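TA notes, week 10

Several of you asked for a full example with nothing omitted. So below is the full record: structure tokens for the whole chain, then the designed sequence directly under it. When grading your own attempts, check the secondary structure regions first.
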């Protein structure tokens, strides 16, 4: 009988003995509960006092002058675009391999998205593909630190400076991560991120924005914080005449239940994520040299790290397994006791909303309604985004070697016995993934 569980062998993971704490996140203690209940009991859910305390604490931690809380990360990213003065006909460059909230809001500003390709090992925007995407109306680059991996910020910032383009960092996957000893979110002109319940920094449903630029801060505040659109917060003169109205016509205020939880979570974040990193690095050390499997992780020798290692994945090399599809590989891993999923976020340029969507009734599809060029033509060069193959791996929250070894053995066992899987492989293609984003247990974003 085969050793593989898919053919009747014993699974590598004994799910009955896995402690819930190995994966449970966020870690909620009595301190979190009391902080949230304090807000609830005095009916301050829609207030500002707790949020403003967290904003100050977050800005200090993020090493930025200013920070603003939002109802979610999507709104924070849209406010960052508005802060960059994106408007009709402007373009933002964004990696195609990301969650839609990194860029789709540009349509709300009558702007558009130009997709750049990703680097095949970092899965972040490839600096070598950015200049191809720049046009006369390029306003900003959206840099996504995808799945916790830091983007290569040095060349990105050099390109931005050369072409006088603003940089927005989407840190939704990498809060507190480091690039060459410096915290992510401090390189670009402005940063925004989600800190909803599925993220490594988790606070219910909430987003954060941070910047050192006062005018950007003022624009981001004025965009959707009508109760703070006044001279107490906003000093940029041309914005003050519009006081008391949200300039985006939307409401982005965060519920203070989330703000209260965020304050507690931030206190313990670095300690907890350090243990996550220890666990994840141990997992990959057990798979070093296994054919077909490569770690999606950063070299920490220069002071970089993967923060809380949000939604971890591995890089799949089918050529080392005689072309075994990642779908078939994941089928076998699931039988071993871990719910592995092939792919991650699908390449956005392949979705119809970025091809011919015109629900806003423009004369042309929304993506090119106000542009001077058909940016869809640039999508033809996004080969890595379309072809890269990845698979989900366990997101360990604690360093428990005996259990981590079980999960590593599940992947190793399948890879080393791949020949048995070839005969039943339907080779379902390389465009695995999903438009939404979830873990092996529940939706996360």
């Amino acid at each position: 009988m085969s050793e593989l569980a898919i053919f009747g062998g014993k699974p590598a993971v004994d799910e009955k003995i896995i402690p819930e704490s190995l994966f449970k996140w966020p870690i909620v203690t009595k301190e979190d509960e009391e902080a949230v209940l304090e807000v609830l009991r005095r009916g301050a859910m829609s207030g500002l006092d707790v949020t403003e305390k967290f904003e100050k604490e977050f800005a200090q931690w993020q090493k930025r002058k200013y920070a603003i809380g939002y109802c979610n990360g999507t709104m924070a990213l849209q406010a960052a675009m508005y802060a960059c003065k994106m408007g009709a006909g402007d373009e933002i460059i964004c990696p195609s391999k990301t969650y839609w909230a990194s860029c789709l809001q540009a349509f709300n500003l009558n702007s558009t998205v130009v997709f750049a390709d990703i680097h095949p090992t970092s899965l972040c925007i490839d600096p070598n593909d950015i200049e191809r995407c720049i046009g006369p109306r390029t306003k900003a680059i959206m840099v996504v630190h995808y799945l916790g991996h830091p983007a290569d910020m040095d060349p990105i910032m050099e390109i931005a400076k050369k072409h006088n383009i603003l940089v927005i960092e989407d840190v939704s996957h990498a809060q507190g991560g480091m690039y060459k000893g410096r915290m992510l979110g401090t390189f670009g002109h402005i940063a925004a991120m989600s800190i909803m319940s599925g993220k490594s920094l988790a606070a219910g449903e909430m987003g954060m924005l941070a910047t050192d630029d006062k005018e950007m801060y003022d624009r981001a505040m004025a965009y959707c914080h009508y109760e703070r659109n006044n001279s107490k917060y906003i000093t940029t003169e041309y914005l003050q005449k519009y006081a008391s109205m949200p300039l985006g016509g939307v409401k982005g205020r965060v519920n203070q239940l989330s703000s209260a939880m965020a304050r507690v979570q931030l206190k313990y974040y670095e300690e907890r994520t350090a243990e996550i990193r220890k666990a994840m690095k141990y997992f990959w050390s057990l798979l070093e040299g296994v054919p077909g499997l490569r770690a999606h992780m950063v070299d920490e020798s220069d002071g970089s790290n993967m923060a809380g290692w949000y939604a971890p994945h591995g890089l799949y090399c089918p050529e080392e397994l005689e072309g075994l599809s990642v779908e078939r590989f994941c089928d076998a891993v699931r039988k071993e006791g871990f719910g592995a999923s092939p792919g991650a976020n699908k390449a956005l340029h392949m979705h119809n909303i970025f091809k011919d969507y015109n629900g806003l009734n423009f004369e042309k599809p929304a993506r090119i309604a106000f542009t001077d060029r058909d940016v869809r033509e640039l999508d033809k060069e996004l080969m890595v985004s379309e072809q890269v193959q990845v698979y989900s791996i366990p997101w360990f929250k604690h360093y428990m070697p005996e259990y981590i070894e079980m999960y590593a053995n599940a992947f190793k066992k399948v890879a080393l016995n791949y020949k048995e899987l070839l005969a039943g492989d339907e080779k379902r293609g390389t465009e695995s993934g999903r438009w939404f984003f979830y873990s092996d247990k529940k939706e996360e974003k």
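The mean pLDDT is 95. Use that as a sanity check on your answer.
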